[in-house]
Amino acid sequence: MLQELLGKTTIESWQLASTGSVWYFRRMNGSEHLLQLFRDKKAFLEGHFLLSSGLHSPNYMQCALILQYPEIASELGSSLAKKLSRADVVLSPAMGGIIIGHEVARALNVRFLFCERENGIFRLRRGFEIAPDEKVVVVEDVVTTGKSTRETIGVAEQAGARVIGVGSIVDRSLEPPEFPGTFHSLLRLPLTVYEASDCPLCSQNIPVVKPGSRKQ
Ligand SMILES: [Zn+2]
């Protein structure tokens, strides 16, 4: 299903658009389809949000809401795997990277490991091991500052392994992050944030919403 959305021409891949008074149908590209899917699954919300960083934003993304559908997770994983170089191991940071990392590893037919924080520092636990000669790709759900990605890269490098690439479903970075190897994402959507004291949405008196705190 998603494979169609991400590439082939289907009836859904046309979108009504306008230039001034002229309306026409245009073909949506793969990223536009994916964003539409995020919207449909309420994994991408638009409004006025208080982020965990304390900053305000006109949109909010929660990848877990799209990854709750195994079929979508699987197809996103195989789409991302096609962009990544062949590795020996896929490594992801817990929790956000686990589902998509697993699906990328399934598509590449390689091992999947995750690292998790212990006293604030990412480590391999549970007996997971990476051999020094192994090639690793790091897979995330979302890259924003790249901090957790870089920490995950550090885990692989500490084991003596070589990170040959990074993949994420969504790239929300403002500037291209510097990672070893190649960096690929399925959707580029730079994050817009405002300081609470300088937020145009606050000055329009639009109520701010803390995502996840709303009662359904
Ligand atoms: Zn605000």
Overall shape: globular
Fill in the CATH topology: Rossmann fold
The CATH architecture category equals 3-Layer(aba) Sandwich
Determine Rg (CA atoms, Å): 19 Å
Q: What is the CATH domain class?
A: Alpha Beta
Count up the domains: 1
Indicate the percent of residues in helices: 25-40%
Q: List the secondary-structure elements in sequence, H or E.
A: HEEHEEHHEHEEEHEEH
Read across the widest sheet, the strand sequence of neighbours is 7-6-5-8-9-10
Can you list the ligands bound to this structure?
A: zinc ion
The main pleated sheet reads as: 6 strands, mixed
What amount of the residues lies in strands? 25-35%
Describe this entry's structure for a reader.
This protein is an alpha/beta fold and 216 residues long. The chain has a single domain, classed as Rossmann fold (3-Layer(aba) Sandwich). The protein has helices at residues 2-6, 30-40, 64-67, 70-83, 98-108, 147-158, 200-203; strands at residues 14-19, 22-27, 44-50, 56-61, 89-93, 111-118, 121-124, 135-143, 162-171, 182-188. The chain has a six-stranded mixed sheet with strand order 7-6-5-8-9-10, with helices on both faces. A two-stranded antiparallel ribbon has the order 1-2. A two-stranded antiparallel ribbon has the order 3-4. Helix 6 (147-158) links the parallel strand 8 and strand 9 (162-171). Helix 4 (70-83) packs across helix 5. The protein starts with a helix and ends in a 13-residue tail after the last helix. Residues 7-12 have low confidence and may be disordered. Zinc ion binds next to helix 7.
